[in-house]
Amino acid sequence: MADQTTYTTDSYFETQERPASLDAEVSKVRDWVTTMKSRGKRIVLVTSGGTSVPLEKNMVRFLDNFSAGTRGATSAEYFLAHSYAVIFLHRQHSLLPFTRHYSHSTHPFLDLLQIDPVTSAISVDPSSTSDLLPILKRHLEVKEEGTLLSVPFVTVNEYLWLLKGVSEVMGGPNGIGRKGMFYLAAAVSDFFLPGTRMSEHKIQSGNGVATDSSVENGRLTLSMDQVPKILRPLVEEWTKEGYIVSFKLETDPSLLLPKSRAALSRYGHQLVIGNDLHRRKLEVVFVEPLAGGVAGEEGGKFKESWVRLGEGKKEIEEEIVEELVKRHTTWIDGGKV
Ligand code: PAZ
User: Is the CB of 94 under 6 A from ligand 1?
Assistant: First the structure.
């Protein structure tokens, strides 16, 4: 197995380390799904953020990508507004629903606060109250209802194991069936360094003299393997009845439609949302299978519809989620979308 470069999902899970906390996380998800199901809820799994690809087992260095989790966190809020229960599978420290409005350096939370000079009591600056109030109200309501389950991961390996575990719960015999949706917005690495070739400790440069097998003449060489295409077992094995939405990100706009169509033909799921890196907050394209639609090179027939940030809407996710809820309703009713 040491020289393997392409993995099936089975050979991946047979050879790559199972996270120690996996069973506890999946068991939490199972209990929560049972509760939400007993309340008659629809459940959406939202995946969000980037994935880290460790270069060392005691991870000091890693490869990563740009995703801050804006799409996932924003969409989760709109799904909650449509009365969905949300499993939020996200990269640790990426944006979270509700708190995203006051995160990091763009709109820091401390800037909302003021101190009374006499009593030292802390309060919200009145100029911020009208923005904060509806967000805080929704945050507290959702907490009270327990309809948002947060599941963090860091590495691509943790992501893959959790996606499998959560999907098997949602799609299993006591799962949520057609009332489940999968909204796969995380930007998942296509490449990883398998455990067998990963340095145990921090890769040493030895002050210019190579001390590690991957460093020669001061140059670090990485040889990475392909992450298996996880959509196939998701669609074919883990959750046969769920409504599955994957995302396709491209930087060359001419690839957006062909690549989205190719993904749909290959995996046979319900919808691919194509987005261009620079225009992703303004427009996305829905690509769906359709009898009588436009024939692609792959032989399948597709319907394409653009969703654009509309007048009076602050965020494109509001429109994306509105469209998906309609399609999911048709899916639940057993009709063709
Ligand atoms: O996290 P973000 O809002 O900055 O970006 C969202 C996104 C572009 C990562 C997402 O919309 C997406 O396309 N995810 C899938 C990427 C891919 O694997 O092709």
Answer: no
Average pLDDT over residues 100-116: 88
Ligand 1 in reach of 67 Cβ (< 6 A): yes
The atom of ligand 1 lying closest to the CA of 94 is 1
| pLDDT at res. 219 | 86
Mean pLDDT of all residues in the chain?
92
Our answer on whether the CB atom of 275 is closer than 6 Å to any ligand 1 atom is yes
Q: Is the pLDDT of residue 47 over 70?
A: yes
Lowest mean pLDDT among 238-247, 290-299, 326-335: 290-299
> Taking residues 51-65, what's their average pLDDT?
95
**Angle 307-310-311 from CA coordinates, rounded to 5°:** 170
Q: How do 283-295 and 301-308 pair as beta strands?
A: antiparallel
What separation in Å is there between the alpha carbon of 185 and the centre of ligand 1?
5
> Is the minimum distance from the CB of 274 to ligand 1 under 6 angstroms?
no
Both structure tokens of 256: 């957006």
Protein residue with least CA distance to atom 4, ligand 1: 67
Instruction: Give the model's confidence band at 127: pLDDT under 50 very low, under 70 low, under 90 confident, else very high.
Output: very high
Which is nearest to 331 in space by CA: 247, 240, 248? 240
Nearest alpha-carbon partner for 242 in 178, 184, 183, 288: 178
Rounded Cα gap, residues 97 and 80, in angstroms: 10
Compute the distance from residue 183 Cα to the ligand 1 centre, in Å: 11
Q: Assess whether the C-beta atom of 189 lies below 6 angstroms from ligand 1.
A: no
On whether the CB atoms of residues 182 and 45 are closer than 8 A, the answer is yes
